[in-house]
Amino acid sequence: MFSNNGFVISLTLLIALMASITPMPLNVDAFRPDWVLIVLVYWCLALPNKVNVITAWVMGFILDVLLGSVLGVHACAMALSIYIVVVNFQKIRNFSVWQQALIIGVLSAQYHLIVFWLQRFLSDAVFLSNYLYPVITSIVLWPWVFLLLRRVRRHFHIK
Amino acid sequence: MNPIFNQGTSPAQRLTLVLACSIALIFFDHKMASFETARGYLQSLVSPLQYMANAPQQMMTWASENLVTRQQLMKENTSFRENELFFHEQSMQLSIIRQENERLRSLLSSPVRGENKKMFAEILSVDSDPYSHQVVINRGANDGVYEGQPVLDEKGIVGQILHVGVSSSRVILISDISHAIPVRIQRNGLRLIASGSGQIDRLIHNFVAHSADVKKGDLLVTSGLGGKYPEGYPVSRITSVRTDESREFATILSQPEAQINRLRYVLLLSKEKAFNPALLNKTKSKKGVKL
Lengths: 159, 291
Known about the structure:
Chain A is an all-alpha fold. In chain A, 74% of the residues lie in helices and 0% in strands.
């Protein structure tokens, strides 16, 4: 994990974390894609022996601290979403990129719904349809992130 | 080498472990609030990330501030000069009125209101989490920020400090669903509570009787009850009053005065009084008389 490979993986995850907290105008902010989830899904599909549920949980925990939500909410949602990928990685790998994008959409929707359910349970949040806007942007973003990260992986020979 | 067969713990085992951890964390953080101190440390740990995430935006603002024409600057300068004259005149009036007010209050033997110490801060990042309305500012425990400190912008109350890190801290906004602030109507002194609604441009006032004298356009100011916020700062303006007799209470909504969705600089008020020599002399002389 502390070798060069691990370093590149953590760097991409760090950039994803930063992208998910950079300040944005309010009406664009609702469409912010789930950067961390997408990057984690890529690494899970490519290297399931390196990136797993526990990595996802840790990233979710950092996200909780960064976003100031109740500790464990994003961690729990992230771990559950990544678990589905980890269990089915061999099937998902063989899909075309656009089919994978649809799966990302389902995962992202599930992630946001779990976060909403937990928040609803904790603090009476009311559901607004714009909580699911990130699903659309995540679907659109997946092919590009996939191609970019595949290039990164091949360039650095991460195995 | 990649093992062909999965060794060690299975994903399901990992998931159970991790879910148990999350449930424990949620329980201890939300129900017992036992992570308050740990949160401070975590906040300081991730603050470099926040500074880094904020860097592109700061670069943009730096560029836009540096790339202005001479004409624009001159125009701005004249408008600032006009404003300064205007404010100076007002402040002259204000100092006389303040002295008069202090004298009257001391005659009435009510406590003299000193000036609060203020601190300037810049917004570092705004949360993308739609369930909590919070921002992070670039002042922390090193600058003397404390939990519960009121935060305002030039128009009105913004919120209060939630968690304090070493060099950054987190502000909960008045529009957050878990936040409420005691207010009164400036026109007639009627007391209300402004609760956050989770929407940035809306506060809700619960438990107001149908007969209460509330009108659209009324300004709500902090009432100073509860001891968190000092008295008399504007909070919001009533946008709608609906008295549906079939319901138990009137439905009253208001819009925050502070421009919460375009915050950049904020002011922190502190409980410590700013040093005021005139006030000090007065209290001394008073003591002397008593002795």
